């Protein structure tokens, strides 16, 4: 019996893989140490102190106003309160923008594949125009050419006797925070859960036809009608009221020109990219799937909803994640039109206090956290729609 000859470590591929990884980690650590020590030396040379204590120091008030504030705020509040306001402003733009851009993008993406020539051409012109124009230029257009050009508040444009368009912003009906509103919202949540259950059940039986599929369809229709009636009559809607004597509008929801510009601009811009993702995802599904679904007697709408779109979704989610992340990052362009998001507020604090490094870290950590949350949710959704191998 011969003993197996031992391979020298310098000829062992596993050894060199470990060595290379150790070297890379050492280089990265060395770079961070160098940058950190350089930062410390510069702080000492300029006689500056690094720290975040100034954010909660009540003896150092923010001393600046914020026009769009979803929570009570005054110039006497500490800097941490101002950052919280900017954070909430960024969140409402990101969340609303993602929802609206997804709805518009899916609609336009399906329109790009429509059999109707006019719908297809309109969708194509929209996508090609918006995708090939800089976002900052579009924001300037919406701000200076549209929203600031609306009539003055004493002569607003009125839709349905409840929506007011003025150069001070858009005023919309909004539910008051009453018990009636909260009860209605609870009913809507329960209706949504029940509708999701019925929708899933309907997907399983609709291809077979029969009474069970029709019964589920009627149940979904009943839930939809009940939800619509609840939204219209159940919620305690607060209508904007025009006071011509005081030259003001009170009540309801006010979207300032800056907020409306950012929301509309990001929605329309991102939706153009989402539309192309949707179109590519749908076209990635094999043509035989369309033919097989039609052979079962399914109508075009059911073919798209039950057969094509679920398969296309597996292809669409990764690029959709990138578009959502881009929307979150592009919201920082709010500073160009004067909207007080977290970046604009942090920039103001940096100019006042000279704490540029600290505020830069706050902004970086904030956007990193936003994007990691979005990416985590989309990755979870991506795993839930993938085919499960046995």
What's the short story on this structure?
The chain has helices spanning 13-45, 79-111, 117-131, 135-146, 179-205, 210-234, 257-283, 287-295, 300-330, 342-353, 356-385, and strands spanning 157-159, 163-166, 169-172, 174-175, 237-238, 241-243, 248-250, 253-255. By secondary structure, the protein is α+β, with helices and mostly antiparallel strands.
Characterization of the model:
Among the domains are: 9-45; 90-154 and 257-385, MetI-like (MetI-like fold). The mean pLDDT is 85. The protein is globular, with a radius of gyration of 28 Å. The protein has 390 residues and is α+β, with helices and mostly antiparallel strands. A hairpin with a 3-residue loop joins strand 1 and strand 2 (163-166). 65% of the residues lie in helices and 6% in strands.
Characteristic terms for this protein:
single chain; 390 residues; alpha+beta; MetI-like fold; two-stranded antiparallel sheet; 11 helices; 8 strands; globular
């Amino acid at each position: 019996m011969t003993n197996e000859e031992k391979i020298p470590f310098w000829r062992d591929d596993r050894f060199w893989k470990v060595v290379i990884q150790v070297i890379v980690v050492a280089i990265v650590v060395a770079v961070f140490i160098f940058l950190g020590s350089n930062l410390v030396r510069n702080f000492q040379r300029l006689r500056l102190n690094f720290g975040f204590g100034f954010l909660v120091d009540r003896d150092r008030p923010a001393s600046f106003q914020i026009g769009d504030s979803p929570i009570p705020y005054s110039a006497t509040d500490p800097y941490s309160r101002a950052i919280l306001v900017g954070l909430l402003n960024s969140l409402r733009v990101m969340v609303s923008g993602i929802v609206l851009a997804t709805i518009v993008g899916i609609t336009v993406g399906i329109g790009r594949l429509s059999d109707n020539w006019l719908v297809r051409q309109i969708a194509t012109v929209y996508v090609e125009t918006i995708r090939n124009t800089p976002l900052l230029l579009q924001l300037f257009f919406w701000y200076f050419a549209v929203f600031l050009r609306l009539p003055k508040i004493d002569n607003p444009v009125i839709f349905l006797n409840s929506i007011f368009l003025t150069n001070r912003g858009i005023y919309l009906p909004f539910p008051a925070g009453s018990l009636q509103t909260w009860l209605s919202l609870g009913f809507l949540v329960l209706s949504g859960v029940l509708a999701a259950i019925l929708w899933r059940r309907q997907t399983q039986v609709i291809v077979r036809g029969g009474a069970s599929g029709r019964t589920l369809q009627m149940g979904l229709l009943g839930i939809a009608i009940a939800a619509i009636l609840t939204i219209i009559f159940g919620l305690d809607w607060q209508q904007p009221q025009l006071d011509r004597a005081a030259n003001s509008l009170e009540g309801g929801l006010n979207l300032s020109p800056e907020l409306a510009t950012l929301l509309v601009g990001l929605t329309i811009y991102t939706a153009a990219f989402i539309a192309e993702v949707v179109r590519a995802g749908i076209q990635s599904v094999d043509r035989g799937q369309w033919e097989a679904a039609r052979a079962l007697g399914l109508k075009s709408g059911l073919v798209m909803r039950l057969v094509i779109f679920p398969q296309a979704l597996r292809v669409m989610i990764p690029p959709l994640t990138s578009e959502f992340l881009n929307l979150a990052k592009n919201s920082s362009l709010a500073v160009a039109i004067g909207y007080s998001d977290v970046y604009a507020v942090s920039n103001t604090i940096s100019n006042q206090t000279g704490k540029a490094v600290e505020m830069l870290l706050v902004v970086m950590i904030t956007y990193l956290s936003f994007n990691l949350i979005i990416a985590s949710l989309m990755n979870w959704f991506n795993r839930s729609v993938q085919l499960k191998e046995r």
